[in-house]
Amino acid sequence: MDKQVIGILGGGQLGRMFIEAAGRMNVEVRVLDPTALSPAKQISNSDKHIDEPFTSSEAIKKLADGCDVLTVEIEHVNCDELAKIESLGLAQVRPSSSTVRLIQDKYLQKVYLAEQSLALPEFVGCDSLDEVVAAGEKFGYPFVLKCRLGAYDGRGNYVVKSKDDAASGFKTLGEKMLYAEKFVPFTKELAVMVVRRPSGQVATYPVVETIQRDNICELVYAPAQIDGDIRQIAMKVATDTVSCLPSGSAGIFGVEMFLHEDGRTVLVNEIAPRPHNSGHYTIEACHTSQFENHLRAVLDLPLGSTELKVPNAAMINVLGGQNGMQSVLDPCLASLEVPGATVHLYGKAGAKPARKMGHVTVVADSALQLRRRTDLIVGKLSNASDEERERLAYRKSQEQTTDGSVNDEEKKDVKHMSPLVGIIMGSDSDLPTMRPAAHILEQFGVPFELTIVSAHRTPDRMFEYARSAHTRGLKAIIAGAGGAAHLPGMVAALTPLPVIGVPVKGRCLDGVDSLHSIVQMPRGVPVATVAINNSDNAGLLAVRILGASCPTYLDAMQNYMDDMRVGVEKKIARLDVTGWKDY
Amino acid sequence: MDKQVIGILGGGQLGRMFIEAAGRMNVEVRVLDPTALSPAKQISNSDKHIDEPFTSSEAIKKLADGCDVLTVEIEHVNCDELAKIESLGLAQVRPSSSTVRLIQDKYLQKVYLAEQSLALPEFVGCDSLDEVVAAGEKFGYPFVLKCRLGAYDGRGNYVVKSKDDAASGFKTLGEKMLYAEKFVPFTKELAVMVVRRPSGQVATYPVVETIQRDNICELVYAPAQIDGDIRQIAMKVATDTVSCLPSGSAGIFGVEMFLHEDGRTVLVNEIAPRPHNSGHYTIEACHTSQFENHLRAVLDLPLGSTELKVPNAAMINVLGGQNGMQSVLDPCLASLEVPGATVHLYGKAGAKPARKMGHVTVVADSALQLRRRTDLIVGKLSNASDEERERLAYRKSQEQTTDGSVNDEEKKDVKHMSPLVGIIMGSDSDLPTMRPAAHILEQFGVPFELTIVSAHRTPDRMFEYARSAHTRGLKAIIAGAGGAAHLPGMVAALTPLPVIGVPVKGRCLDGVDSLHSIVQMPRGVPVATVAINNSDNAGLLAVRILGASCPTYLDAMQNYMDDMRVGVEKKIARLDVTGWKDY
């Protein structure tokens, strides 16, 4: 594909997956890593790899000799040597040494991002115990004390709980090169991968939600199950963050963020100048993986599409555990029986507790199906929580008995998923009529939202709601209205989504007024009208619309129809037994 | 993942992609191939590979020593030696030597399959010129004379055009080990991958359509754009074919088939006992790739899901051409700019004409989008036809000017795609009312079918149509009816798909009779009702339903709505200029 030879500093799992992408495009990669058959080297049959530390000047120089481009799979590298190579023009360094240096030092990183007007948690540098105490006075307790260099997976962080705790934190973290950060009351941790060409052109992946256990990422959900508006905000923050990096910052970047508990504010936590754990899902779930896009970026080739090619995906990290390799194999073997699951093992020998040994990607046609699938794997992790083990046991029992229906546990899960259907009505007086639609959606496990939007009393809100519905992630809108009943048709005129209209019966005309208002739309703008006051059918129609592309809901609808038949069959039997007189 | 070590006979591109899958699961594979850094060996850093012919008894024995399982990436191997290894219990051989031997000899393969009652083209063995001539008398001309052994990509085949041609064919093919096959008048070549565990359990991939040029596969479309009923027939034929192979036939198999021009008959052409070119699309498009499932099968691990995870996919073979490596790079470089395209290069040095150097997979949310994307790559193939080059030029021009609309060329393409929407009506007298729905779907590039289904006059047909609609691949049904208007509601009672009802105005009651019949459905079964006689809106609603999950149609609907606005704006301007009196 390209004659340029790439040298990579670091040969762990990130390098391995990078080499897999490079192998597909037949691009030569040489690895610098102290371990002889490190994960990356295992899948590249070459005698050009170098078995030396990626911090060694000599080794980096040796790698540069014969490579056109140098890149990194870890930021803790020797930036001075990379800068020398850049200045001597021995090879392109992507991302540039100055970018890596900036990101290496988390304090400098934050100073830079703050200068670029990005929203961050408040922070301050601490070079003495006095400064740590002053930070506590400024930020209040608890606050977080962090090492500027070399921290990862929660290592190098200390939560200072009180003034008395300050000295202990200062000492624990080595008494130098520290900074303090105000505690952010966040509801979720989000992450976005952004890839950038040498020209500065960027492409941004979807927003994911990362779930940590013991400070290590356990799970990633893509896309994050948050409101579509917030998704757009987070993607913009990540795009702005990577776009503002110094020129020459080519490659893929992971941007970690906090979603503040106010539900609207997205704050940058930190950047990784390389492929990132939160982007592994892209291998199976996106048009172009983070690794291939990193390759394209450092070779200055056109960037690939960053879009999801499946509706939902998850990534589960597989760590070493108390049972060594068995702790690793248990979730992987379970994955083999889960449709849409793909196992990645990194070829590491020692399965020490908390060591990242592999991961499993799961793809699904809906967030509900994804949850059903991930539960079967997460419960097998060696450090699974009691709740996760219970979920696994429950899923296993469901497999024997399932009729496709959604039970109370799942209904709770679905409430935390991004809505696919919006139910709107002109007034709270319509709620009794519209409530059955909500019951149906809940019964089918369809995430939905329900609110009041009035065409006549809140016309601005109606415009805003309808215009943004599809970008927020809705797939259909159910609108109920009585009398003049303008809401469904006006919403349909503002959205490209299917709109289902429920004519609500008023005090006169028996609902025929609203039926005609809703159904008799002019050519060009359809409303899918159901029977008067029959919002059950609106809910069922929404499920059928989702089912057209999503087998989870198509199968559930088929089951529902079977259940209706069975219900009537029971009545037939009862009528036969009881007789028509006494029935 | 598994401690078993696998030895593979052959180290070309199939072995390479197999090793990629094995690398992900950290399974050790040793390659036997005469070429030192053959494609498969390049991505496996091991000193256990063997650089000897896979026909050599010695080399096979050496490979078996230290391996738990032997498998093949090519069927032209030394079966005697494999049989010896089986009988001595040195390693598992999967697929078994007897299966490989059976498939190696295409004549024996056909005899076996015919004995198992599978439908094949008529054939007869030919060991002399007299027998060739007799075959001509039996089958008529033209018929196909084939080598029993070693044939591939059209090599070893000779089309005998007349009695006079028989001697030439007999001589060309070497005068021995031949068979004759009756010419099958087929409309399409289909293929299905089937994976089988040692226990005999099988899993079947979707049906694809393969398009050959100069007897080499150029393109694969998944799923095949044929009626869903035929897809099911072809999947059953392939499943039966692989299921009937001798016990011990574990691994992945490719089944090539002909779709007879009668449109219903599917005939088996031949089997490959290994990963197959027609299954490469599975890497990006299915839950589990053919390579990973082959790995699982030969290790006797649970099989992965064979389902598509994207709506549509294509595979384009990239061959060496007159311009050597440039012929290979041209389509690959073009692919980098096509969303959903992934390049695979096999790491072969010599780009000789017709040599398989790589392939490109393309995924898309619709057959229409897939066509738009593949056209941009196929036109760059070194042996592209004039038509393919014209299509590329046309696509390039569209990129500058496109407003998302579908032009006449595309409308022709769409006619050959599997229908997503069914338009039905009770009588041909409804056609004038329903035709606008068809025009809308045509305008949006939605593949559809239109037919007469009457609830009252053809109730059996209605049941059959509605019950099979979703398994045939339809996503929505538009049903028009007048008067008592039972069709939409009855169809909705029989299918889990969304049904759109169009009330057709009769001679009395102004269509209110049909409106009420269609819209006032009982709780449990919804019909999405549009305005009386307004089948345009039914078509538009179907597009919105598809668009809910398919950006191609969502974007097109947004463009359509913009166009409506612009249309009115023009009228506003004309009214301003002309004035209300003269307008």
Q: Can you give me a brief rundown of this structure?
A:
2 copies of one chain form a homodimer. With 583 residues, chain A is an alpha/beta fold. Chain A is 39% helix and 21% strand.
List keywords for this structure.
homodimer; 583 residues; alpha/beta; Rossmann fold; Dna Ligase, domain 1; D-amino Acid Aminotransferase, Chain A, domain 1; 4 domains; nine-stranded antiparallel sheet; 22 strands
Can you offer a commentary on this structure?
Two copies of one chain form a homodimer. With 583 residues, chain A is of the alpha/beta class. Chain A has four domains: 5-93, 3-Layer(aba) Sandwich (Rossmann fold); 122-182, 2-Layer Sandwich (Dna Ligase, domain 1), CATH 3.30.1490; 187-388, ATP-grasp fold, B domain (D-amino Acid Aminotransferase, Chain A, domain 1); 421-549, Rossmann fold, CATH 3.40.50.1970. Helices cover 39% and strands 21% of the residues of chain A. In chain A, strands 9, 10, 11, 12, 13, 14, 15, 16 and 17 form a nine-stranded antiparallel beta sheet that branches. In chain A, strands 19-18-20-21-22 form a five-stranded parallel beta sheet, sandwiched between helices. In chain A, strand 20, helix 18 and strand 21 (499-504) form a beta-alpha-beta unit. In chain A, helix 3 runs parallel beside helix 4 (79-88) and helix 4 (79-88) runs antiparallel to helix 5 (97-104). The longest helix of chain A is centred in the C-terminal third of the chain and has 32 residues, at 551-582. The termini of chain A are far apart. In chain A, 56% of the residues are buried. Chains A and B meet through helix 1, helix 12, strand 16, strand 22 and helix 20 of A and helix 1, helix 12, strand 16, strand 22 and helix 20 of B. Chains A, B: Keywords: ATP-binding, Decarboxylase, Lyase, Nucleotide-binding, Purine biosynthesis. Chains A, B: Residues 388-398 have a biased composition (Basic and acidic residues). Chains A, B: Residues 388-412 are annotated as: Disordered. Chains A, B: InterPro entries: Ade2_fungi/plant (IPR016301), ATP-grasp (IPR011761), ATP-grasp_carboxylate-amine (IPR003135), ATP_grasp_subdomain_1 (IPR013815), PreATP-grasp_dom_sf (IPR016185), PurE_ClassI (IPR033747), PurE_dom (IPR000031), PurK (IPR005875). Chains A, B: It comes from Linderina pennispora.
